[in-house]
Amino acid sequence: MRALDAGILVCSDCHQLNRPDQDDDAPCCTRCGSRLHERRPNSLIRTWALLLTATILYIPANVLPIMTVNFFGNGSPSTIMEGVIELIHADMLPIALVVFTASILVPTFKLVGIALLLYSVQRHQPMSARQRILMYRFIEWIGRWSMLDIFVIAILVALVNFGNLASIEANPGAAAFASVVVLTMTAAVTFDPRLIWDNTDMDDENG
């Protein structure tokens, strides 16, 4: 049984449980006064919009150079994948694996995972609620590691600046990649996980 079936609404701001009057067309939280909703308004539409924007920016994030490393005045811009290849050639395989995982695998998994979650909820695909909620929690947990590359670049740009001897510059690919990370993290927040259980109840009734 859901809290909604018992007439209980959860405040999205302070998480207070409220039992509003059924005659109240605009119920508010008894603790913080925020407007109460059965589910986050336009959750699926907002999440799809953020996801599609992140998918579009994911292309320049991988095609455009992410940073330029200069030694003695010489250097060339490199994309994420080119940086991974350079690390492999420099016999730094563990670091290359970390960068590849954080910069390629994690964003790709988040984009595909959120898309599958949205599609399964909207189209009532044969996926159990447990599978959906595990996917959602994993997407939320793994999102924090997507910023690893951006943090590394920001630290290197701030610390490595020795004029013509050695310097590191951030390139447009870094901005695009940071935008993808922020958008996917926001998409995971705007998605209302309670829709998973609503969808499961509908599937059980249809079955």
Can you describe this structure?
It is found in: Cell inner membrane. One of its GO terms (cellular component) is plasma membrane. It is built from 7 helices and 5 strands. The longest helix has 31 residues. A 3-stranded antiparallel sheet has the order 4-3-5. The chain has a two-stranded antiparallel ribbon with strand order 1-2. By secondary structure, it is mostly helical. The protein has 2 domains: 38 residues, no CATH class; 165 residues, Butyryl-CoA Dehydrogenase, subunit A, domain 3 (Up-down Bundle), CATH 1.20.140. Helix content is 58%, strand content 8%. α2 runs antiparallel to α3, α3 runs antiparallel to α4 and α3 crosses α6. The C terminus is likely disordered.
Summarize the structure.
By secondary structure, the chain is mainly α. The protein has helices spanning 43-63, 80-89, 93-123, 129-142, 148-159, 172-190, 194-206; strands at residues 9-10, 17-18, 67-71, 77-78, 166-170. It has two domains: 1-38, no CATH class; 41-205, Butyryl-CoA Dehydrogenase, subunit A, domain 3.
N-to-C CA distance: 18 Å
Q: In sequence order, what are the helices and strands, one letter per element?
A: EEHEEHHHHEHH
CATH-defined fold name of the largest domain: Butyryl-CoA Dehydrogenase, subunit A, domain 3
Please count the helical segments.
Answer: 7
CATH architecture descriptor text of the largest domain: Up-down Bundle
Overall 3D form: elongated
Number of domains: 2
Radius of gyration: 22 Å
Which residues sit in consecutive blocks of at least 5 with pLDDT less than 50? 202-207
What's the main sheet like? 3 strands, antiparallel
The averaged pLDDT comes out at 78
How helix-rich are the residues, as a percent range? Answer: 55-70%
CATH class of the largest domain: Mainly Alpha
Helix-and-strand structural type: mainly alpha
Tell me the number of strands: 5
Percent range for β-strand residues:
5-15%
Strand order of the largest sheet: 4-3-5
